[in-house]
């Protein structure tokens, strides 16, 4: 069993620039770990942002995913549908957009004077 610290998290590398966190690279990281263990496929488990990476791994390289276990995220098409049509889901998912903000001003955080 292997638990991956995705790039940018915990003790893993933290490359600068949003381009280094592209979903294709994150999926590539999962593929690289599977291959580095000498395996052709794996049971992939994901939670939170790792859930989206796990979904994308299964959707884009299904031959490398034996089983998929997602702990907190619906299928990406269902999530997209809700983000487009459901104001409550838009509000609940707003925190994820903050990952891409560069400054407190962009986050519209209140000033502490």
Number of strands: 2
Order of strands side by side in the largest beta sheet?
1-2
Broad shape: globular
How many strands, what sense, and barrel or not for the largest sheet? 2 strands, parallel
Class inferred from helices and paired strands: mainly alpha
How does this model look, in words?
44% of the residues lie in helices and 10% in strands. β1 (42-46), α2 and β2 (65-70) form a beta-alpha-beta unit. The protein is mainly alpha-helical and 113 residues long. α1 packs across α2.
Helix and strand topology:
Layout: H1 23-36, E1 42-46, H2 49-60, E2 65-70, H3 76-85, H4 87-92, H5 94-97, H6 104-107
Parallel strand pairs: 1-2
Helix pairs in contact: 1-2
List the defining traits of the structure above.
single chain, 113 residues, mainly alpha, 6 helices, 2 strands
Give a quick summary of the entry.
The protein is mainly alpha-helical. The chain contains 6 helices and 2 strands, in the order H-E-H-E-H-H-H-H. The protein has helices spanning 23-36, 49-60, 76-85, 87-92, 94-97, 104-107; strands at residues 42-46, 65-70.
């Amino acid at each position: 069993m292997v638990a991956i610290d995705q790039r940018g998290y915990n003790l893993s590398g933290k490359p600068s620039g949003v381009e280094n966190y592209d979903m294709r690279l994150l999926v590539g990281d999962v593929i690289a770990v599977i291959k580095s263990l000498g395996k052709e496929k794996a049971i992939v488990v994901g939670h939170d942002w790792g859930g989206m990476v796990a979904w994308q791994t299964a959707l884009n390289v299904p031959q490398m995913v034996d089983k998929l276990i997602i702990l907190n995220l619906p299928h990406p098409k269902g999530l997209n549908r809700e983000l487009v049509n459901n104001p409550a889901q838009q509000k609940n998912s707003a925190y994820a957009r903050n990952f891409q903000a560069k400054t407190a001003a962009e986050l519209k955080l209140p000033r502490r004077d």
